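Form P-L/3: holo structure prediction, ligand S-adenosylmethionine.
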Amino acid sequence: MEKLSNPQVTIATIKKYDFAFQKKFGQNFLIDEHVLNKIIAAAGVTKEDMVLEIGPGFGTMTQYLSENAREVVAVEIDKELIPVLNDTLSDYDNVTIINEDILKVDIEKLVQERNGGNPIKVVANLPYYITTPIIMGLLENHVPVDNITVMVQKEVALRMQAKPGTKDYGALSLAVQYYAKPYIAANVPPNCFIPRPNVGSAVIRLELFDEPPVNVKDEKMMFSIIRASFNQRRKTLQNSIVNGGLPFTKEQISKALGKMELADTIRGEALSLEQFAKLTDILTEFKSPD
Ligand code: SAM
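OUTPUT (holo model):
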C-alpha cells in the first residue's frame, strides 16, 4: 500500500472518512517524504528504540517510525482519528495507539512498562498550540528520554536555540538549554502540510543532558529569577527582579551584580545560563541566615 506521505493517499483518506480538520487540535498533516526522512534521521531512530509519537494524525509519520523503530506508542487526542489510524496502520504490527490528551498521560509509567525504564525517543509533528507545555513537561519531569525531535513553529525553534544578547533569547531558551542541547535539523515551508499552516516550521532536536550544564543550589529560584527578568524585557535586571515580587532588595541585587563584575544597568537578555546560576547562588546566600 502507498504511504500517506504521497499527497494523493492523504487526499483519498480525507475523502474516505469525510474528515474535517480541527483547528483547535492544531491539525496540519505532513505530506512530504523528504521531510519525514529528515525527521527520522535527525532523531536517529533504530530498531532498538521505543518511540513516543505525540499526535499521529492520520499516521503519516507513524508509518515511517514503525519501519525504523522497535516499538511505537502514538498518543492522539482526537477520537475521530482512531478509526482512521486503525485503518492506515493495519499493516504495522509494532504500533500502539492511545486515545488521550498527551498532557494527561503518565509517560514515566509508559517508559517503565514498555521500555524497562530505559530512555525512549520522542518524535512528533507537534500541535503548535501546546508546544511549550509538552516540551517543558517532558524536560522538567525528568522523563527518561534520549532525544526529543519535533516539528515546531519556526519562531519557537529559534527561541529554543537562541544565545544571550539576541532578540530571540528568553526564558524558553534558558529553560530548554538547562536540560538539553538544541539543534535545528530542518526548516520546513507551509506547502509540506495539508492544510497549510500560516507560519513557517522547523524540526528541532533536543538532546538531553545526563547532568545540567551548570550547578545551581536552588533550581526553582533560578527559574523564578529568569522568568521575572524576561517578563519586563525593557527594564534592567534589577528592576525586573524587584518588580517580579522576588524576596531580594535592589541593594542586594546590586551587590550581587557587583560581585559578578556586571553593571547595575544590565538587562536579563545579556546574561548567560551560567551567569543566572551564579546570580541565584549569590542572592540565595544573602537571603539565608548565617
Ligand atoms: N503526526 C501527524 C502528521 O505529521 O501528519 C499530525 C500532526 S498535527 C500537527 C498534530 C496532531 O496532534 C493532530 O493529529 C492532533 O489531533 C493531535 N493533538 C492535538 N492536541 C493533542 C493533545 N493534547 N494530545 C495528543 N494529541 C494531540
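COMMENT: The first helix runs from residue 7 to 17.
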